[in-house]
Amino acid sequence: MIATHLSPAPKQYRFPSLLHSTSHNHHLPVHLSLPRRHRNFAKPTAAAQDLLASVESVASAASVLAAIVLVHESGHFLAAASRGIHVSQFSIGFGPTLARFRLSPVEYALRAIPLGGYVGFPDDDSESGFAPNDLNLLHNRPIPDRLLVVSAGVAANLAFAFLIVYAQLRSPSASPCKANKPSPIPRLWPRQTSSPASSPWPLRPPSWPPTCSSYESGHFLAAASQGIHVSQFSIGFGPTLVRFCLGPVEYALRAIPLDGYVGFPDDDPESGFAPNDPDLLCNRPVPDHLLVVSAGVAANLAFAFLVVYEQALTIVLRRWLGHGCGAHGGRRASDEDVM
């Protein structure tokens, strides 16, 4: 009796197995590809991360470019303001205007596309209210003032590059880069790894020869471009390693590359030049004096700018080519990483 009532129950209430049933008449579908469904949910997340990384790269590049444009146009603007020259507009970027305001006679504007900028002068604006013969209009100023305004933008960019390099070299927090996270501004001289020292910058390759040569070359080329007599061009001091003459100039390379000089025959009675020779430096006008004196610093700033430009270009090319350090140790995200 007991066996008779209990034996049919398992057959009557047994449910078919979804994984091992051989019957094709049940209406419950069987889905076994759970890992594939999981991959389909993971891929949009990876795509969103790649999109976010691309947006961040574009935003950072645009901000750097906007900073360069701001420094460049500020150089023009400050040079004109320092000489009392009338300025009507100062704009960063071009295209649609994001912000605009006026302070005194100058209109300031921030535009949407940070690929350029300009400083406007009211010289050709008939509605500016200035007389055509106003001495403070740019076209009525002497040539040195116009050259100052034109070249101030490049000079400001060179000074900006020099400050970046100087801050990078002087910063005590410039610790070695962590794995897969390179420094935004690469170190120009790597640390010594063979024997650590207490100083944050134990040893560096000698940097004096290129900076000394660029500094003195700036003086020399500025003088030569103005037709000023030059008698000597020397890199370093101490014992002479190489010496030769080309025309009236004696060139020398000395043993200790920590200094250099450009010699002028102004006070040399044996030079053969008359004391009132107009091509002697002492007889040239003040702008020529300033040009020769400042050309050394300008050459070093140009050298620093080229170094920073080369390093920045290397970083950009590495990112564009997909070799930058990222979340996957320098590799691009792939299906294997997502899965």
UniProtKB/TrEMBL annotation:
A Gene Ontology biological process in which this protein takes part is:
proteolysis
| Location in the cell | Membrane
Gene Ontology CC, one term:
membrane
Q: Which Pfam families match?
A: Peptidase_M50
A Gene Ontology molecular function term for this protein is:
metalloendopeptidase activity
Q: How does it sit in the membrane?
A: Multi-pass membrane protein
Which residues does the annotated region (Disordered) include?
173-204
Which InterPro entries does this chain map to?
Pept_M50_Zn, Peptidase_M50
* Principal place of residence: membrane
Which cofactors must be present for this protein to function? Zn(2+)
Transmembrane region positions? 147-169, 290-309
Question: Which UniProt keywords are present, listed alphabetically?
Answer: Hydrolase, Membrane, Metalloprotease, Protease, Transmembrane, Transmembrane helix, Zinc
Peptidase M50 domain residues: 62-168, 216-309
Entry protein name:
Peptidase M50 domain-containing protein
- What is the scientific name of the source organism? Zea mays (Maize)
Q: Lineage in the entry?
A: Eukaryota, Viridiplantae, Streptophyta, Embryophyta, Tracheophyta
